[in-house]
Specification:
The chain is mainly beta. Among the domains are: 1-47, no CATH class; 54-96 and 264-388, Thrombin, subunit H (Beta Barrel). The protein contains no helices and 35 strands. The strands form 9 sheets. A 4-stranded antiparallel sheet has the order 4-35-34-33, with no helix packed on it. A 4-stranded antiparallel sheet has the order 5-6-7-8, with no helix packed on it. Strand 19 (200-207) and strand 20 form a beta hairpin. The radius of gyration is 21 Å and the shape is globular.
């Protein structure tokens, strides 16, 4: 069992989920009058005033909160992790609270706002307001990302196999398999992982309804995204391959005949178009692997799709946040430096929230930046960013 820690709660007169920072109580839990987050200096139903900016301009940046990974949490708050996890108001950047014992890296968030973290053999859970719920220790070290299901349960890869944990932290069945991958993806009722042993590597499907492994196909590639028809996209070096939902290889794309360096990531829009970044280019591919367009751009991150726009992180002399049209690849705008400090910006962990604001961590300063944009999130997205969504569920079945 566990107990909630005592903390400040703030009066929420207008019931918008944000409390008045000047009126607080100390308690263990929220109630109907007080909430766990401040940030509403005008608690009479009037919206918080935020200065309007042109697209590609900095809306705000963090000063005392540092960033290595990002996620969106309950009521669109921003979860910022860098040795500890802090919660910021995504609209203003205002610090709301920090999570106790949360120095475990990337947050994974369920649909009810529950936050999960892992380290070595342990998984820790917090409720949507930052109170610790439970910590569970597994019998073997965790080696993959977490996959978050609709009911808040979890799949995770360990050295012993694919492990299931309930939303209450109860360790369930383990499905033995030799996992040779840091990343798993989930969708269309399956979990996809790379299996490896002395016989080589293969992509393997775990059928969630049958609770058994279904098929495998030999490939060196690691699963990184899913397509509109249930295809799985795997990357290895400078190539991306498409594997059908029945385990057959459909096509292979070798960027610039292998001369463009390693694939950095794949995102898939609502139409099934793939956006592939390597170290020197952005490529747009139709779902059959044929090229739609490509443009030169030195990049270091998985692209992020927002309606009509693909965002990428430039590196080297092309440092900055770049926005390109998904239709033609046309360059729309670039944010290359912080206008206040004139320091160059090097984005990582790019995500987009419900109103189209772009957030990222800066690799050098470790500040969080919020940038205005005219694009809105994809309608019915397929796989618009690295871990599928800003909650890092890695699961297209979750939404």
């Amino acid at each position: 069992m566990y107990g909630f820690r005592r903390k400040l709660f703030y009066q929420d007169k207008d019931k918008d989920g944000l409390g008045n920072p000047n009126k607080s109580i100390i308690s263990c839990t929220e109630n109907t009058e007080y909430v766990g987050w401040a940030g509403d200096s005008d608690d009479n139903g009037n919206p918080i005033s935020v200065s309007k900016k042109n697209q590609g301009e900095i809306l705000w940046k963090s000063n005392d909160v540092f960033c290595d990974t990002l996620a969106l949490g309950y009521k669109n708050v921003l979860l910022v992790s860098y040795f500890e996890t802090n919660i910021l108001d995504s609209q203003t950047g205002l610090f709301l609270t920090s999570l106790e014992n949360s120095d475990w890296g990337r947050p994974f968030v369920s649909s009810d706002g529950t936050m999960y973290f892992y380290q070595e053999k342990k998984i820790r859970s917090y409720n949507s307001f930052g109170n610790e719920k439970w910590t569970t220790e597994l019998s073997s070290q965790i080696i993959t990302n977490l996959i978050i299901e609709k009911d808040g349960s979890i799949f995770v890869g360990t050295k012993e196999g694919l492990q299931k944990i309930s939303s209450e932290g109860i360790v369930g069945e383990i499905y033995p398999v030799e996992i040779n991958s840091n990343q798993m993806v989930s969708g269309f009722g399956g979990v996809y992982l790379r299996r490896g042993n002395e016989l080589g590597n293969s992509l393997k499907l775990f059928d969630k309804s049958k609770k058994e492994f279904s098929w495998s196909i030999q490939t060196w590639g690691e699963p990184i995204a899913m397509g509109k028809d249930g295809s799985i996209y795997v990357s290895y070096g400078g190539s991306v391959s498409s594997i059908s939902d029945v385990g057959k290889k459909s096509w292979n794309f070798l960027a610039d005949e292998g001369k463009s360096g390693n694939i950095q990531g794949v995102a898939v829009d609502a139409k099934g178009i793939l956006y592939v970044t390597d170290e020197f280019n952005i490529h747009a591919l139709y779902s059959d692997g044929k090229k739609k367009w490509d443009i030169p751009r030195r990049t270091s991150e998985t692209p992020v799709i927002s309606e009509g726009v693909v965002y990428v992180s430039g590196i080297g002399i092309e440092n900055g946040l770049y926005a390109h049209s998904t239709e033609s690849g046309k360059h729309l705008w670039t944010l290359k430096s912080d206008s206040e400090t004139n320091e160059p910006i090097q984005p990582k962990e790019i995500i987009v929230n419900g109103d189209g604001t772009v957030f990222f961590c800066d690799k050098e300063s470790h500040r969080v930046y919020a940038v205005t944009a005219n694009s809105l999130p994809e309608t019915n997205p397929v796989w618009p960013m690295k871990f599928h969504d800003p909650q890092n569920t890695s699961n297209s079945d979750e939404k």
